[in-house]
Amino acid sequence: MSNPQGYCRDGHIANCDGSPVRLVPRLTLSSPAKLNIFLEVTGKRPDGFHELETVMLRTHFCDQLTFQQTPSSDITLSLSDATAADMPAGIPLDETNLILRAACALQKLCGTSLGAHIILHKRIPPESGLGGGSSNAATTLIGCRQLWNVDVTDDQLHAIAATLGSDINFLLSGASAAVCRGRGEIIEPIRLARKLYFVALRPRAGNSTAAVFRQTMILGTPRLSTPLADSVAHGFGNLQSLIFNRLTDAASQLNPAMATLLKRIPHLVRRPAFMSGSGSTVYVVASSRLDAQSVADELKDSCRLPVWILECG
């Protein structure tokens, strides 16, 4: 992030008109989902996590977080009344939630006595491979820094993010796309040659990230992300032939409903299906917004599941 303050409602850095942000008692920020279009596991780390090489895209599919100043130092979290009724069961509101962990880590770092009540309007399903929880944590770091008007650098926010999860640094960076390595904290931004469109859906059951990684085989010669990264940066090549996710086989063994979708979707829409992150979201590539809408309508009618059009760039 080039500006140390935060994002506006539309996801841009600072205010949309370029003016400096200022201390406010309440603000609302978008919290975007990510999509993995390449994911290779290159090794196991001493800390128990895995070394990754992944290409992630920032999408326009978002949760929303509202931050309110409180007179005490307490940090609390609730779901908005508009959150779908089937969401709350998978969303903890205690200290295990990344939102509260991120806010408490920032509060401790800067030593502020200010607190916050955070309201989450949840749209990105948990255990979907779309990074909803990680995005919420990244948005919380940005939002609380602005809410409390504390002097904390981008590098300090990234240091907090790296302790919390693998996707948070990318979502914190504000990049539209990036190659990410290490646990995901080493970020090499990519400028997309054009907007990209995908159509995504997921079975009703989610995937445990930890379980998927435990089941994944690490090969001696990893696949490289360079051909795909070059393709999206320069707008050439067949993107569908370059998309790859090492976790797909393990996730398919753990989630038969997702495995069925991966096999069924190509017959329905005549194009290959892929998995994002550790799943259980699966997706196909669309050539345009119009094509995406047509594919989304067909999948919604055939699969009877929620379907999202993911626009990137």
> What would the CATH topology of the largest domain be?
Ribosomal Protein S5, domain 2
CATH architecture of the largest domain: 2-Layer Sandwich
- Give the helix/strand class: alpha+beta
Tally of structural domains: 2
Gyration radius, to the nearest Å?
Answer: 19 Å
Q: What is the CATH class name of the largest domain?
A: Alpha Beta
Number of strands: 11
Calculate the terminal CA-CA distance, rounded to whole Å: 16 Å
Helix content: 25-40%
Largest sheet: 7 strands, mixed
Number of helices: 10
Low-confidence sequence ranges: 1-16
What would the principal axes of the Cα set say about the shape? globular
- Mean pLDDT comes to 91
Q: Tell me what portion of residues adopts beta-strand conformation.
A: 25-35%
Series of H and E elements: EEEHEHHHEEEHHHEHHEEHE
Question: What do these coordinates show?
Answer:
This protein is α+β, with helices and mostly antiparallel strands and 313 residues long. The protein folds into 2 domains: 26-188, 2-Layer Sandwich (Ribosomal Protein S5, domain 2); 192-312, Alpha-Beta Plaits. Helices cover 33% and strands 27% of the residues. The strands form 2 sheets. Strands 1, 2, 3, 4, 5, 6 and 8 form a 7-stranded mixed β-sheet that branches. A 4-stranded antiparallel β-sheet has the order 9-10-7-11, with helices on one face. Helix 1 (98-110) packs parallel to helix 2 (132-148), helix 1 crosses helix 3 (154-164) and helix 8 crosses helix 9 (256-269).
